[in-house]
Amino acid sequence: MPDQPPAAARPRPLAHVPVHTVLVVVVLGVLVYLILPELGKLPEAWRAIRHADAAWLVVAAVATGAIFIAGGVQLIGATSAHVALARAATAQVAASFANKLTPASVGGLGVRVRFLQRCGLAAPDAVASTALDSVAGGIVHFAWFLLALVFAGSNAFDNDVTLPDGWVLLAIAVVVLSATGVVAFLPAARRWLVERARPALSDLVATMRRPAKATELLGGAVAQTGCYLVVFGASLAAVDAGTPIGTMMIVYLGGSTIAAAAPTPGGLAAVEAALVAGLTATGTPTDLAVAGVLVFRTLTYWGTLIPGWLAMRGLRHRGLL
Questions:
Q1: How far apart are CA 41 and CA 286, in angstroms?
Q2: How many structural domains does the chain have?
Q3: pTM above 0.70?
Q4: Residue 319, helix vs strand vs coil
Q5: Looking at the domain assignment, is residue 189 inside a domain?
Q6: Looking at the domain assignment, is residue 307 inside a domain?
Q7: pLDDT tens digits for range 70-127
Q8: Radius of gyration for the alpha carbons in the chain, expressed in angstroms and rounded
Q9: 129 lies in a domain?
Q10: Whole-angstrom Cα distance, residue 210 to residue 213?
Q11: 202 inside domain
Q12: Dist CA 222 CA 216 (whole Å)
């Protein structure tokens, strides 16, 4: 039977999500998706979605599921505990659900720490493993971005930067939501990361000396980011956006990094704004950029809400959260 951490060291229970929190997320979602189509011509954007290529949508949906399998492999590589892949992947699905209800990924961090404690790690080790998982993911994300720059060359920046009509409305929404989140949530998240970044880097060096664990940790991180790129690329291809692969990679990797600084739940509004801006600035027609981003976020954000809720309930039922 795994050792139970002292009561004071245990993370707060994550089972009960306040109703008002869910309502806030829903309201934010409605506002974002009412404003977003104003960036382009609404009929054209919805027409592109209605006539989306089904084969590409299937590719995007499968890649969305693969994101969590890759994340499970990465989490296994970050910990010394013996964790089955199915459980680790389920924990990542539950963490994604928690991230959609809390700014700055605080909820997802809590879910991972709690899960690893239930798998037998003491509280400090669970926190260290979670920090290592996050740091490795950030390093790999940056490496992907450098690779995308090399792959795309200068072609992605040949077009004059233009912003679509209605951008001011979405920009104002992003600024207001981000400012609120920064004041309320970001300081605590920043302290958490700063306090654990150096130990996590030391753990990363130690992990690199263990080939099997290093392969799981970094291989899972590479695969997870790669799956996000596949989902984004397939979403754009489904609406026939015609965005070059290198440009698509730069827009997603750069846009998601910028949006991560806005601590709205799951990057709501910030991700949409950053991706649409990046696509339109590099030459993708506005209506197709909006359509592709809507498909992408429907799959990776809204489409994972119910599976995430079920994953959290399932883990709690098994005593793993």
A1: 8
A2: 1
A3: yes
A4: coil
A5: yes
A6: yes
A7: 999 999 999 988 899 999 999 999 999 998 877 667 788 889 999 999 999 888 888 8
A8: 20
A9: yes
A10: 6
A11: yes
A12: 10
